[in-house]
Predict the structure.
Amino acid sequence: MDTFFCSDYSRQTGEDIIGSATNYQTYVLVECPPPWMSEAFNSKWVPRNLRILVEEVKRAKLPIRFLLIANDSSHKVDDTTVLIYQRQEGLSNGYRKQEFKLANIEQVAAVVQKWLSGISSASEVNTSETRDILVCTHGSHDKCCAKYGNPFYFNAIATISDLYLDNVRIWKSSHFGGHRFAPTIIDLPEGRYYGVLEQDSLKAILTRTGDIQCLNKIYRGWGILPTALQILERELILRHGWDWFNYKVAGKILEQSLDNNTILAELTFENTSGSVYTYQAKLVKDKCQSQRVKSSCHATQELEVIKYAVASLGVTSSKLVTYSV
């Protein structure tokens, strides 16, 4: 019997989980009760028209991630929730949410097709600001997400209730990468990824309190940034503290060596008082942290995962933005 668990192995080797958040322009989250097949959109409750749409989007290589989501009442409610999160351009603090309530899952494909064509839908609902926490519990895709994701989801419901966080919704989610960091979550609308979580570290994320250094262990990165820049952003979070989560950010890679061993990166942020700062950093391959890993429980080969260290960091410009009314 195979007893290899990729997340146990990742913890034992002390793998740094930063730089593992995936970068998508859009998330389309479709409520669908489990059980889910290993390929989520082949599951029995997913209608053919939706499966075809997901395949078409994949073939067209559009930067859209389709995920199935569910909560404890998904199998008994009379409607289907669809959430579309789209990345904001320029300096931003993440994604913008649109929410749709549909009579059934068969209607999802038509609404998403309309949305892709820029046509609004009567089924869109006005909702208050919410935080949607997605926990990967997709055990048929990787057993670590069942072993660690399911109990974490169950306990997180109680954590959110104990904190009286009425605006936070928690969802089980199909696979979004990084199962070797189970339990792993995406925190929307920000689009930040976390892993190797416990309830105490979830509390810190939800309330933005406690020792900021905990992010060294649990922060996978921000999905609006290229993976190499995620290490730079973590460095800046550790400098600025929880205030950083209120800032708007944009980042880009300026130069990259041919062997990918060094990167010149730039990250601009606007703080809450309207001042804009630009940092430049040299990122170099971290030989100690770069290692070969098995990326899933059923991986047959190891992959080399390259990690970077921030070799130099400095502010290159700062200005106060004034908005004319």
